[in-house]
Amino acid sequence: MGYDIERFVGYVNEGLLCSICRDVLEDPLQAPCEHAFCTACIHGWLVHHSNCPEDRQMIDVSLLRPLYRYMKNDLNRLQLHCKNRDYGCEMVCSLESIDRHERECEYSQIPCSNAGCTVQIERRNLDGHLAVCEYRSRECPNGCGYTILSAEDTQHNCVAELRTELELLRSEMICRVEEAKHEMESRLDSQRRHMVQKESILQNEIEELKSQMSRMMSDVRSLMAAERQHRQELEQAELEKREL
């Protein structure tokens, strides 16, 4: 949709009106047949049609182009009232700068920034509203440190609030202790399993060393027996040599 023509000061050229909504062009596009439209209007039209709403010539979204520069300049120079005119804003500015003004306009209706508050208030009155808003928050004046809403003033009880916080802290501490306990038990179980595995490996290695040592002792005994046999044979050979 375009800008309501009633907002404009003075004469508006027919060529600057949307051929669909008949308001002043907003974010304009132009067809090859030179008819101009608001972007939202022509896109909505082409969902159900494939021709220009003015002369019925065939058009496609891909054929739409930005407005000619001289027409765009004429459009930007148009003077119009702020949309907040009914709330008291008397600003009249060019179409080119109207969006910037309206974003900052003191008469714009904006929501209260306090969570839970649904009030829409003029920007210029926001500070006054925030000072009395029933959803505003502040720190407890009795020193308990709680942030409370004005609507909760009568229900706020420092002792009860602190007791509740203490219970929450106690519950949280218990949970943390339990978590730490489970974590330590898990680590101990893991280390215990690791030690058992290491013990089993060491035991196997010890048995293997014992076996190797037994084989070595057997080999030593065999060598010593062979050496005695060899010495006896040498002595026998020596005797035989002497006899000869």
From TrEMBL:
One GO-annotated biological process of the protein: regulation of canonical NF-kappaB signal transduction
Domain of life: Eukaryota
Biological source species: Aramus guarauna
Annotated TRAF-type domain residues: 101-144
PANTHER family documented for this protein: RECEPTOR-ASSOCIATED FACTOR, PUTATIVE-RELATED (PTHR10131:SF157), TNF RECEPTOR ASSOCIATED FACTOR (PTHR10131)
Zinc finger (TRAF-type): 101-144
Keyword set, alphabetical order: Coiled coil, Ligase, Metal-binding, Zinc, Zinc-finger
Pfam families documented for this protein: zf-C3HC4_2, zf-TRAF
Domain RING-type: 18-56
Protein name: RNF41 ligase
Coiled coil (UniProt feature): 192-243
Magnesium found in the keyword field: no
An example molecular function term from Gene Ontology annotations: zinc ion binding
Keyword Glycoprotein: no
